[in-house]
From TrEMBL:
CDD domains: FMT_core_GART
Protein name as catalogued: Phosphoribosylglycinamide formyltransferase
Organism phylogeny: Bacteria, Pseudomonadati, Pseudomonadota, Gammaproteobacteria, Oceanospirillales
Catalytic function, reaction form: N(1)-(5-phospho-beta-D-ribosyl)glycinamide + (6R)-10-formyltetrahydrofolate = N(2)-formyl-N(1)-(5-phospho-beta-D-ribosyl)glycinamide + (6S)-5,6,7,8-tetrahydrofolate + H(+)
Binding site for N(1)-(5-phospho-beta-D-ribosyl)glycinamide: G12, S13, N14
UniProt family annotation: Belongs to the GART family.
Site for Raises pKa of active site His, residues: D145
Protein role: Catalyzes the transfer of a formyl group from 10-formyltetrahydrofolate to 5-phospho-ribosyl-glycinamide (GAR), producing 5-phospho-ribosyl-N-formylglycinamide (FGAR) and tetrahydrofolate.
Active-site residues (renumbered): H109 (proton donor)
SUPFAM superfamilies found in the cross-reference section: Formyltransferase
Transmembrane segments: none
Family annotation (InterPro entries): Formyl_transf_N, Formyl_transf_N_sf, GART, GART_AS
Length: 214
């Protein structure tokens, strides 16, 4: 059984998708803890309702990003996770942190990477006149939103879309592709090797596995 630890900052909708997945009979992993940098994150309540330890480590209690990340690493490592999953964890991580969990740290980003790294991705996709938008699950490196992509879910952009309507559809596909990537890892099918994502012994293309609208 693999041990998964999830980091959150907000409502935790992706966390809920992971909790639902891990509660299935015969699933090869369990979520051993959820940690938030915000005490008011609703995702902590989701974890408690699922019987998962829910912890808050407030970044405001630390003088620097480096000090916080060191404390966060110590807290994570107490739970001995095989995989650390960022599910709406709104912190830019230090290089020490990403190096410490190299190959076992996943993130989901609401764009078709490498497009629209950073914030406000839905509005930026609309402003750019994109035909497609979506989300990407990737291994985390020191480069912001720059690690190897594992899987992408695509949605078509409608002429009537706003940033909010587009975000709702992207969230739906996030809840499909994140559990899929985590499952591959927990089945020992997904690996980080030579700076690339590998699935079933084969290197993945730069855009990862593509799912969703064609």
């Amino acid at each position: 059984m693999k041990r998964i630890l999830v980091l959150i900052s907000g409502s935790g909708s992706n966390l809920q998708a992971l909790l639902d997945m891990s509660s299935q009979d015969g699933y090869p992993a369990s979520i051993v803890a959820v940690i938030s940098n915000r005490a008011d994150a609703y995702g902590l309540e989701r974890a408690r309702l699922a019987g998962v330890p829910a912890l808050c480590l407030n970044h405001r209690d630390y003088a620097s990003r480096e000090a916080y990340d060191q404390a966060l690493m110590a807290c994570i490592d107490e739970h001995q996770p095989d995989l650390v999953v960022l599910a709406g964890f709104m912190r830019i991580l230090t290089e020490d942190f990403t190096r410490h969990y190299s190959g076992r740290l996943l993130n989901i980003h609401p764009s078709l990477l490498p497009k629209f790294k950073g914030l406000h991705t839905h509005a930026r996709a609309l402003e750019a006149g994109e035909q497609w938008h979506g989300a990407s699950v990737h291994f985390v490196t020191a480069e912001l939103d720059g690690g190897p992509v594992i899987i992408q879910g695509r949605v078509a952009i409608d002429a009537q879309d706003t940033a909010d309507t587009l975000a709702q559809r992207v969230h739906q596909i996030e809840h499909q592709i994140y559990p899929q990537a985590v499952t591959w890892f927990c089945q020992d099918r997904l690996q980080w090797r030579d700076g690339q994502a590998w699935l079933d012994g084969q290197p993945l293309p730069a855009e990862g596995i593509q799912v969703g609208a064609n």
